[in-house]
């Protein structure tokens, strides 16, 4: 149970940090209209708006679709990282309940953990925290 608790807590923290980082990158990119995405290019031919960027030889990547591609990749990644953080948090709650420390520990005691399977648990214990 301690391994489940520590791994789920670590994963919850990392997923939350990833979600915050992606949200920050997404917000800064939308606010700056993608200017940070083409900052590494040293061409004066590039416009300030990354949505209107053109492909030049001075840039190490194709700038024509950098803004739309970044947003198309970051939005699903943000949603998946947030879902992972939520599920890891729920795993952490389950581990706490197994240890008798969680919010449902009174209705689900430590003595019920060993011999019972999930199907044999009372309905109140199955639906306690989720």
From TrEMBL:
Topology versus the membrane: Multi-pass membrane protein
Domain of life, per lineage: Eukaryota
Keywords linked to the UniProt accession: Membrane, Signal, Transmembrane, Transmembrane helix
Keyword presence, Signal: yes
GO cellular component: membrane
Pfam families associated with the record: BCLP
Protein name per Swiss-Prot or TrEMBL: KCP3 protein
Protein's organism: Alaudala cheleensis (Asian short-toed lark)
Gene: Krtcap3
């Amino acid at each position: 149970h301690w391994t489940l608790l520590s791994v789920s807590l670590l994963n919850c923290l990392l997923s939350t940090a990833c979600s915050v980082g992606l949200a920050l990158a997404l917000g800064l990119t939308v606010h700056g209209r993608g200017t940070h995405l083409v900052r590494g290019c040293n061409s004066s031919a590039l416009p300030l708006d990354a949505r209107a960027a053109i492909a030049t030889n001075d840039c190490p990547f194709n700038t024509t679709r950098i803004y739309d591609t970044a947003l198309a990749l970051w939005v699903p990644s943000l949603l998946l990282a947030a879902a992972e953080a939520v599920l890891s948090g729920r795993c952490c709650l389950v581990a706490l309940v197994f240890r008798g420390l969680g919010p449902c520990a009174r209705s689900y005691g430590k003595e019920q953990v060993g011999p019972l399977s999930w199907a044999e648990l009372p309905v109140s214990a199955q639906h306690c925290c989720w």
